[in-house]
Amino acid sequence: MKRLKNLASLLTRPRPPVGTTPADVVHRENKWRLLRYRPDPGRAQKLQTPVLLVPSLINRHYVMDLLPGKSMAQDLVAAGHDVYCIDWGTPGDEDRFVDFDEVCDRYLGRAIRHVARTSPRNKTHVLGYCLGGTLATIHTAARPEHVASLFLLAAPVSFTDEGALAAWTRSPQFNVGSIVQGFGNVPWQLMQSAFHMLRPTLTMAKAVGVIDRAANDEFLDGFLALETWGNDNVAFPGECYRQYIEQLYRGDALMQGTFSLSGIPARLENIECPVTSVVFEHDNIVPWQSAAALVDRVSSKDKVLLKLPGGHVGAVVSKAAQKNLWPKMSAFWAERDDAAPEPKRAPPPAPSAPRQKRPARAAKPSRPKSKASATG
């Protein structure tokens, strides 16, 4: 009976409160913002190195802060981490010429430096999800100095897989230049339709799942929260998208070692910080092999590849993720929370004050030197 009642009320059911963990905007630039989640006043912050969450460029940031009681950001704050997150915002028509260097080097770089300044050693842990993980990887490969560690969730670095997205973007019929020229920013509807193409039966599968579990209010709230996020997408800045497709999807430049960021080589071998790459066995958006390729290429001695069951989104935000994956993330950062500051050069000595002249003493009568003292 409750199942039927909940199904009948789906259209009028209040939307769940997404992205509600208290946060302050600590930096704002163009359309993007840097958020800092407020520490729990009832608990002491016990970890020194902050954590920066980098979501995908084309999705809203609140997937990492989905629901009260089911929020990655909220749980990390409760575990004693100082947590920041990038909200990429919504690009306008005037952002069609924003390029890859602007996003990955300057925007992300300023966020990393801002967060790192709050740490005793001027570094931050960086977590990147999907395309956000690709951006974090590239930035770290070119500018590693403020990154304490990389924790990546389904972040593609190799683009030679036979997945549908890779095949589509490599086909001659996919004219990325014409798309950017015609639209400016690439519409989210175009990208959304590409994701639906990967699983044409997904909508039907969701409907069946809702019918089966409609009596569970907690499930319905989580389902509606994810649907809210999944349909709240943003456009991709045009020039940035063109470079992304041409250099990564078609040129596989990261794996070939030919990618550069603002003229600086971004080679995966340059990454020496601790790295964990989490891949998902049933991920149809980022095939797990595409993300797993990173671990063999980085120079880090402290590196882990973690392959988990599940798909691209559910495995990151589900109840199972809250019980297993999120605590693993927290433990990874806690074990590498070196609060010792970076060694600094000693400052030059301060100039000494001019010495006061003493009154001249009366000269003593000189005594003739002996022969030994005169020659020795």
Please outline the helices and strands.
Blueprint: H1 2-8, E1 23-29, E2 32-37, E3 51-54, H2 72-78, E4 83-87, H3 100-116, E5 124-129, H4 131-142, E6 147-153, H5 164-170, H6 176-183, H7 188-198, H8 202-213, H9 217-230, H10 238-250, H11 253-256, E7 260-261, E8 264-265, E9 275-280, H12 288-297, E10 303-308, H13 314-317, H14 319-335, H15 371-375
Parallel strand pairs: 3-4, 3-5, 5-6, 6-9, 9-10
Antiparallel strand pairs: 1-2, 2-4, 7-8
Please describe what this structure looks like.
The chain has 15 helices and ten strands. It is an alpha/beta fold. The protein has a single domain (2-335), classed as Rossmann fold, CATH 3.40.50. The termini are far apart.
Using the coordinates above, name the CATH class.
Alpha Beta
User: Which homologous superfamily in CATH is the superfamily?
Assistant: Alpha/Beta hydrolase fold, catalytic domain
The succession of helices and strands, N to C, reads HEEEHEHEHEHHHHHHHEEEHEHHH
How many angstroms does the end-to-end distance come to? 115 Å
Q: Tell me the major beta sheet.
A: 8 strands, mixed
Strand content: 5-15%
Count of individual helical segments: 15
CATH architecture: 3-Layer(aba) Sandwich
- Count the domains: 1
What would you call the structural class? Answer: alpha/beta
Instruction: Return residue spans where pLDDT drops below 50 for at least 5 consecutive residues.
Output: 340-376
CATH topology: Rossmann fold
What global shape is seen?
A: globular
Counted beta strands:
10
Radius of gyration equals 28 Å
Q: Average pLDDT, to the nearest integer?
A: 84
Helix content: 25-40%
